[in-house]
TrEMBL record:
Transmembrane parts of this sequence: 38-54, 60-84, 124-142
Keywords, ordered alphabetically: Membrane, Transmembrane, Transmembrane helix
Name this polypeptide is given: Uncharacterized protein
Amino acid sequence: MHKLPETIVMDSFNPGRAAERFLPSAGRVPSRLAIGRLVRVALCAVFYCLFYFVQQVTELLAPLVLILGVGWSVLPRLIGAIGASAAAADPQARDIVTHVAGTIPQEIVVGSHVLTAWSLVTDGLLMMGAAAVCATLAAIAAREM
């Protein structure tokens, strides 16, 4: 049987080598380099998990927050436009629409947080940016593993 040159053997895929990379060989004490690699991979795995989790949560919540903010900012104008067209038809309808438009709050205070329509839009856009940053950092952490 013809033996392959050393460069081809080293470049070929050997599934045993990948699995044994972090395991000490029989009768040999693990070196600091192998333990360092193991710690590095573990640390990258923790960061990957953290970044991926934040990415998933922000990708879920960002569109919802953005749509709520845009809807909240458009709703008073939409009701005002309906009220203007209803005023020509019936004065009582105009009063009702004006009353409904006046009941929409400009801000909501939850604990110590003040929520406005544009703060929700800003939060939604910032969450989209955070998702992009976390996706990039998760890809870097995955590459380092």
